[in-house]
Amino acid sequence: MAIKNGTELPDTLTGSANADTLRGNGGDDILNALGGNDLLRGGNDKDELYGGGGADRLFGDAGEDSLYGEAGNDTLIGGTSIEDVNDGKDFLDGGAGADWVYGGFEDTAQGGAGNDTVIGGFANDVLYGDDTEGTIAGGADYIDGAEGNDTLYGEADSLASGGADTILGGEGDDTLFGYADGDSLLGGDGVDYLDGGDGDDVLDGGAGTSTLLGGAGLETIRGGVDGDFIDGGEGADNLNGLGGNDTIYGDFDAEESLAGNDVLNGGGGDDFLDGGAGVDRVIGAAGIDLIFGGEDAETQTARDTLTGGTDTDFFQLLFTDFVPEPIQPGEPIISPPAGDWITDFQDGTDFFLLEGLEFEQLSFQRINLSVGGVATASTRIYVTPEAGIPISQAETLAVVQGVLPGRFDTLDFVTDAPVV
Questions:
Q1: Whole domain around residue 190: which residue ranges?
Q2: What is the DSSP letter of 12?
């Protein structure tokens, strides 16, 4: 085992195939350990440290250093220790292997290939689970932004490669990207932005007003105690706003063919919930909520389940102006829209909002109520293309479960001209 010490001038120190100790001391040094389980300390000034093969320990010490673990399960620390908060803006690259990378103060750190642990430290860091070029297939990384306003990446700029990453924003206003595979993103404290990317992800906004985007895959997203914006994206997602006044979309910007059957729960607070395309279940829970099942523009037959809560809720019913056309031989029969299934409706407390009709078109000769439909002890609200058209050609707006006609009727529907 060799021990080599540099001077106060710029030095180049090279190790061996064995376990070496290289200390740069002062000056802009280059330390190359080669093989073995080595210890490298950059010392003062702007140093470059290369671990080579083996399980190496690299410390940048003071100055703006670049640390490369290369092969092996390495430990990279930008400063003299994990408590050193003024060690300069470093670049750390774990390379291949299961590495432990600690940034420190305003550093850029990447784990490289393998199942890495990447921790940001005290200031505003940029952390990657894998390499910044997106050329290395990623592992299952653990990334912790700790304090500061951090930007954290499970992989780099490649959506095709990745691993099941765990990413913690910690304190501060953080930005987290999961990218490929099933990732777990926890925003922590602060105003955070979380993007799960591809894969079946779990997103948790934590404290603070957060933006949570599921992307592709089957997501589980929890907002937190404050008002959050949540978009499940493609696939069948489970979305829960928890506390605060939340805005929750099942598939805000997804193509209809890629949208899934989502579950939305507003939790506490006055929430806006829109299931989007698909057969969704939308729950307002506590608070004054606006509940919208969404639409399916292609089939117009998706039935959502809309559940209010203990407070005043607004159920938004979509009218698509369905007009049956003659069926040609060999063509499938197009059924009228089936409408939504509404539960926990409280007469005199909750409201229906009818969307899709111009005020001048509205006539309550076209709105009808009937018993049953898809459930007993329920009221079916439907609209006919025009007065006198049979029910078989009517568009169902909603089926109100547990409420019989007589509890409310067409006289309870009030028109209000729009304010121009």
A1: 3-324+334-361
A2: E
